[in-house]
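I am still getting used to backbone structure tokens and would like to learn alongside you. To get us started, please write out a protein record for me. Start from the sequence, derive the backbone structure tokens from it, and show both lines together. Once you have written the record down, we can walk along the chain together:
***
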Amino acid sequence: MSDSSRASDDWLNLSDHDLLAQCRVEHFRVSGPGGQHRNKTDSAVRLTHQPSGVVGYAAERRSQHQNRLIALQRLRRSMALEQRAPVSLDAYHPPTALQRILPRSIRTDISARQRIGPRHRDFWNGAALLLDLFDASNASSADTAARIGCSGNQLVKLLASESHLWAAANQIRERHGLSPLRQ
């Protein structure tokens, strides 16, 4: 399976409307802080992506609309972190989505304006590709770093830039029988 045919990439590239159309949407009440209003409305949102079974959940806002947007963001993040696709390491060249999340100090085909960080919606597309490469490289930070043209230290800093990405990388290392990465 090539990077372009990967199902989760297709799902990650969908608009919010189209991704939401593939989800079972559940609204319900939750208890906790928020005053009387929170207890009177079904503002919590759980999205279950039906093709993959991945779930996104949000309940911290009083607004169902705001919770739906947060749940969509979390669904995209979960899809990127949980679903791995095989990567061919022969003549590997980082796809554009991966290059966009690499630090500025790494020379790529991407300009500084095109680079994105963890708060950008498309960050998780690149993060998924990075984790796929990391998994295909048997969770070796040195091998992964060499394939994307950076040092092992730069790779570790990139993985550490987002706590969920860091945890996913360490889960991959654990599956490969390796000790966790250190910052």
User: Anything to note?
Assistant: The radius of gyration is 18 Å. Confidence is low (pLDDT under 50) at residues 1-6. The longest strand covers residues 23-28.
